[in-house]
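Help needed: design a sequence for this.
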């Protein structure tokens, strides 16, 4: 990684950012400051969109959709534009990664791969898929022809979080655009800069005016306006359960728009004593909870470990946590960066305090660090003796805090794994193939890893069970959110 290039990009001033509506930049009704979690200093300002600003963006999206410039363009034409977007993201990957890191604090080594790297791959995947998808001919009686057409839904509202805005933004945008829709994208007010830059890239690559609109601002204003808007056909969201519930309410109060939610999790990571390599399991498990300072929706935040190896695994994890290099996320050697905001850091500290009060044992970490930098950093933290009833076992922290709970039997492991309101991800470590298959079947989660954690690519879906949401990002299955089916019943 080119450290000199990183330093040069960091030295660049980030100008004030506007709203991207109808292919042009607008000031917006008000402005809000962007504070970098790296040093606590003001980075720039962004527009704080009002309800009227959101309405303008939706109208621009609807006009672009109705014009047919994109919605009725040949799949091969849409493919060319999306491929150019993928290639441009790839060419400007370091610039995009550095901008995102300055905004949300993800360590640069991870950000480069997970943000522009993943976004480019996602746009390329759906670009390649566009002209390979078709409708259906139904098996009807002679003399009747039944056709099933796949059509774009119209205007898509997308609300994405601050932890991986470019990656998750691409998960929403690429399939929605591939299907021929227009989009109004609302980034988190905590991390908007990389998605505003993506809007600029999309325009440069030939995406027609109004097909992609980006409105920044507060969720309680801009997000609510998007959720309540009568001319948004589909709403997609990644974030907290509380906001997800409100978006469902907004759909019911407005036009009954379809709402697809990815609401995080409390993912169980189950290590059996017959795991092929306990040291490897511990190392991967540490990365699964401490990378991006635990700010990952599929973070392996609950470690369920067979009691006979609990002490050994805990020691291995503690060693990994204490050896992790936490600090300036723009340093390529850093392994865990900053917490995205002071508010989120305070939330993490609150979970640590409640775990101590409820009787869990602090193994390592548990406090803010590097406060002299002005940044928002927290030590990788491990608690053992965490009971299923403890808050740390039940609620999503979204920070670098691991809860360890022992078990004695496979049946108990399954019961503990499923004793949660969430069902996004899970993992099983075992050398027994039959046990692996039994656990995959028994654990109620959208993704179950075996002898690994994380790293699945765009070829497979990501979606949650239970209160982790509905609908799927990634893979061809994601396209189903952005199309309507229309039947043509023809008497010959």
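Sure. Designed sequence:
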């Amino acid at each position: 990684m080119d450290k000199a290039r990183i330093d040069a990009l960091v030295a660049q001033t980030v100008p004030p950012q506007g709203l991207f509506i109808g292919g042009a930049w607008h000031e917006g009704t008000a402005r809000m400051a962007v504070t970098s979690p790296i040093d606590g200093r003001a980075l720039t300002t962004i527009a704080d969109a009002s309800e009227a600003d959101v309405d303008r963006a939706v109208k621009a999206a609807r006009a672009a959709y109705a014009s047919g410039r994109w919605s009725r363009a040949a799949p091969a034409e849409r493919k060319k534009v999306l491929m150019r977007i993928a290639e441009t993201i790839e060419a400007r990957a370091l610039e995009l990664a550095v901008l995102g890191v300055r905004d949300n604090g993800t360590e640069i080594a991870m950000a480069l791969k997970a943000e522009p790297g993943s976004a480019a791959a996602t746009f390329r995947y759906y670009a390649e898929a566009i002209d390979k998808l078709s409708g259906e001919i139904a098996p009807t009686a002679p003399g009747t022809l039944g056709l099933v057409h796949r059509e774009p839904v119209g205007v898509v509202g997308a609300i994405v979080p601050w932890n991986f805005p470019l990656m998750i933004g691409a998960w929403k945008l690429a399939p929605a655009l591939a299907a021929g829709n227009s989009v109004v994208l609302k980034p988190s007010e905590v991390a908007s800069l990389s998605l505003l830059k993506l809007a600029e890239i999309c325009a440069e690559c030939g995406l027609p005016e109004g097909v992609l609109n980006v409105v920044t601002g507060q969720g309680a204003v801009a997000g609510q306006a998007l959720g309540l808007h009568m001319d948004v056909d589909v709403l997609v969201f990644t974030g907290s359960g509380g906001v997800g519930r409100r978006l469902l309410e907004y759909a019911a109060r407005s036009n009954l728009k379809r709402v697809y939610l990815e609401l995080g999790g409390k993912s169980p990571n189950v290590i059996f004593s017959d795991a092929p390599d306990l040291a490897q399991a511990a190392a991967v498990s540490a990365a699964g909870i401490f990378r991006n300072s635990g700010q990952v929706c599929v973070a392996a935040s609950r470690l369920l470990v067979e009691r006979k190896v609990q002490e050994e695994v805990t020691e291995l994890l503690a060693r990994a946590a204490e050896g992790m290099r936490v600090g300036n996320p723009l340093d390529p050697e850093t392994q865990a960066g900053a917490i995205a905001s002071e508010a989120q850091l305070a939330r993490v500290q609150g979970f640590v305090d409640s775990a101590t009060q409820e009787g869990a044992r602090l193994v390592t970490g548990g406090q803010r660090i590097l406060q002299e930098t002005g940044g928002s950093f927290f030590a990788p933290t491990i608690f053992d003796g965490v009971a299923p009833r403890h808050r740390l076992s039940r609620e999503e922290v979204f920070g670098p805090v691991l809860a360890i709970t022992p078990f004695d039997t496979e049946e108990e492991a399954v019961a503990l794994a499923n004793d949660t309101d969430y069902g996004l991800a899970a993992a099983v470590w075992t050398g027994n193939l039959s046990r692996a298959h039994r656990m995959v079947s028994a654990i109620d989660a959208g993704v179950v890893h075996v002898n690994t954690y994380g790293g699945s690519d765009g070829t497979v879906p990501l979606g949650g069970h239970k209160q982790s949401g509905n609908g799927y990002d990634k893979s061809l299955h994601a396209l189903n959110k952005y199309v309507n089916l229309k039947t043509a019943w023809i008497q010959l």
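The longest helix spans residues 108-130.
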